[in-house]
Amino acid sequence: MKKVILSICILASAVQYANAQSSTQKRADKLFGKARYVQAAELYEKEVENNKSLDLLEKLGDCYYYNGKMNDASKYYAQALELYPEQVDAEHLHRYAMSLKGNKDYAKADKVMQKYNAKVGRVKTAPNTLAYFAELEKKERRPFIVTNSSISTKDSEWGAAFNANQIVFASSREGGVKGKKYKWNNENYLDLFIAEVDEEGNATGATPFSDEINSPAHEGGVTFSGDGNTIYFTRNVKPKNRKGDKVSHLKIFKSTKSGGNWSEPIEVSFNQEGYSTAHPALNKNNTKLYFASDMPGTEGGFDIFVVDINKDGSFGEPKNVGPNVNTENREQFPFVSDEDNLYFSSDGHMTLGGMDVFVSEINGNSYSKAQNLGNVINSNKDDFGFIYDEGTEKGFLSSNRDGGQGSDDIYRVDRKQIYFVEGVAQDSKTGELLPGAKVVMFDNAGREIAKTTVGADGAFAFEIQPTSDYKLTGSKLTYDPANVEFSTGKKGNVEQNVVLKLIQVVEKPKLDTKPIYFEFDKAILVEESKTELDRIINFMKEHSTFRIEVASYTDNRGTDAYNMSLSSRRANAVKAYFVEQGIAEDRLVSVGYGETKPVEDCTKCTDEQHAKNRRSEFTLIE
User: Fold this and answer.
1) pTM
2) d(C-alpha 441, C-alpha 472), whole Å
């Protein structure tokens, strides 16, 4: 039923009729133009047996698409693409892809999205849907939990809005304003209902909201001021000029409460004749109103806009929130959390099917790139009307996913209680982040229970348990190890931050040592070299995680093969001395480089130059 609110003004686009139309198709087209999709589909089904024009196939697909019958929709979109591969427009390619996703046929949907991208001139390749969501799932440390709500019925319920310890939502259930069935889908018209929400986040006891707000038309998409005395809501309004514009549009209305009664609702000033304005959402301070509209200035079909609310209650000029949120397709159902996160639904960004819920961080007048909330909040059907309290980590979601009570249902949303210790590895002096640092976590018995190597952001995170003691150790090449001990409380100290400050002990990977020299054609350590070697050995004993490479060289006298052998013997002699002094052999790598890397690159070298080339050098390798 939410298709009423999210798609009512999409309706019949201008399509060239066939030169010769049957009376059946003419009647069907007339019903389609009035958004009577159930009745139109019945007539189109009769007509399609003898007439498989592009116009008819696309309209028949649209009838089912608008009512969420994706299997039937994809059937006729597929026929249209097969018979008219070059003529199917971008809009119908996109609907075909979405209907395939609605049937979980992701491989075929991805191929159709490639055709869509080419049609709209987009160069980028459409990502693999399942791979994309698998990667999203890996990144989500504390997933959402979505459960059925007791306020859902066999009828349609959607679009919950917080109002103190209550929610107000739209429903086509019995008990609202009596009227005719809505011809779009043969359900009752939508009215607003109210339900109590307990401390656990359960919604119960739904009753009609207010006779002063509910009317014989559709009402849905609602938001309340912080004090609960101002309501903005969406109502379906017939056009003033029925001879010209025959399509009903959505308008935002405002009402205020005084003495327990709501005032006569009035349209907001930024509504525009001939366009829809819907799904209002106030920010925390009641200074901005977000909404969805197809008014001029959109990126596509429907976009998210924002308008300032002045101190006198008047409105500024609506502004499109921009391409990080909006696409050439549909963005609707905005909600702004107390932490200035803009949640909304879209079928233009990467989705699992239909509309998915996304989030964008609000920073002044800018909006971060939209992020999909993942495959728990989102499904292969339409997921929308997401509201969430980041303090209590509870909220509600509307969806027509499988397993619900009716066409659209309201679901309860919680966050899985997994506790983490988070932190960064950084230089103790400069504060510089240290990518590549290794972080290990131990329990109170000294057992290693988790480890990681931090990335470019220097960040690490480990799952922890309540009422437990832990130790973190950070290490990195050229740095002294750092240790941090911490304990968790009864609630797990959720996302406790820990900073591992490492102290750099060596400026460069190559150790700052004096050269270790050898006599001509010898691989025996001279006594004066041992003083320098002992200094390196002491360093390694103090820094037990480090390993070194012993690299030895020769002068350029002798054959290449002989010099390689000689340099290897020299490296092994140094390694043997380290082992004798208590350094584990697995911490040492000995390599002979022959005459390949001379310090003095000369052809006719002096004895002094030859001596400088007969050397060993030391490099930290871990």
Assistant:
1) 0.73
2) 5
